[in-house]
Amino acid sequence: MNILCIGDVCGHAGCEHLAAVLPTVKRNEKVDFIIVNGENSADGNGILPHSARMLFDAGVDVVTGGNHTFRRREIYDLLESEDRLLRPANLPSSAPGKGYRLFDCGRTMVGVINLLGTAYMESLDCPFREAEKLAEKLRNEGANIIMVDFHAEATSEKRAMGFWLDGKVSAVFGTHTHVQTADEQILPRGTGYITDLGMTGPVNSVLGVKPEIIISKFIDKLPVRFDQADGECALEGCVFTVDDKSGLCFGAKRVRV
User: Which residues make Cβ contacts (< 8 Å) with residue 90, sequence separation at least 6?
Assistant: First the structure.
């Protein structure tokens, strides 16, 4: 099974670019299942019902979240009602939505786990223990394949998560930093891994935002409004090829369109 995982979609421009190129990527890479991080898919930041619908209408199977998931309160109801929309599992249980789901893909069952890192970010439940617990739970519920979106800041925390889950899940892919890393690999026990999928949005930007705005923030140290950049866009991600029965990964290929 070929599973395409796509990095943080930024704003309306990112959503439109994904919708435009995804059919071609899906056909060329023979993709069976698509996971997209959509926590910045609304202009500014966060996710809105409209941006979530744009991703689903484009053919995305699961939309994962991160530290900006709850930035826009309009998404709260959809988090509760839409099974294909996830938020980090190691947030308090009182938070809207769920951090993992099991999907019936016909010939196999796919579990998806969404987690938030704690290094340089919020103090939350341990993502390592939560990942191990949820992977076992999904296996017991019939998942053959388990994919983990680890939305984290530190590359060391992401690498550590990969080795912690090696052989326990099918793939671990990092999101959040918006810069695609060149370390896609199969870990020793058969888990696919990449530190960061990258970003889907404007190429000439700083994490999807107009460069002059971020430069001003660094120099002046004052709050700024994060206006989305415009111009040429790129889709970045990774295709993991996973054995339907064993759930182990035997292929990892970066994509950029």
Answer: 99, 115, 116, 124, 125, 126, 127, 130
CB burial of 212-229 (b: ≥16 within 10 Å; e: otherwise) equals ebbeeeeeeeeeeebebb
Look at the chain and count its residues.
257
The answer to whether 17 is a known catalytic residue is: no
240, with CB counted inside 10 A (0-12, 13-18, 19+), is buried
Listed in sequence order, the residues at least 6 apart from 58 whose beta carbon sits closer than 8 Å to its beta carbon are 15, 18, 19, 22
Q: Of these residues, 68, 151, 176, 178, which one is catalytic?
A: 68
Q: Which CATH class is domain 2-256?
A: alpha beta
* 207/8 Cα distance (integer angstroms): 9
Tell me the pLDDT of the chain (257 aa) as tens digits: 999 999 999 999 999 999 999 999 999 999 999 999 999 999 988 999 999 999 999 999 999 999 999 999 999 999 999 999 999 999 999 999 999 999 999 989 999 999 999 999 888 999 999 999 999 999 999 999 999 999 999 999 999 999 999 999 999 999 999 999 999 999 999 999 999 999 999 999 999 999 999 999 999 999 888 888 999 999 999 999 999 999 999 999 999 99
Q: pTM for this structure?
A: 0.96
**What's the angle, vertex CA 161, arms to CA 147 and CA 30, rounded to 5?**
30
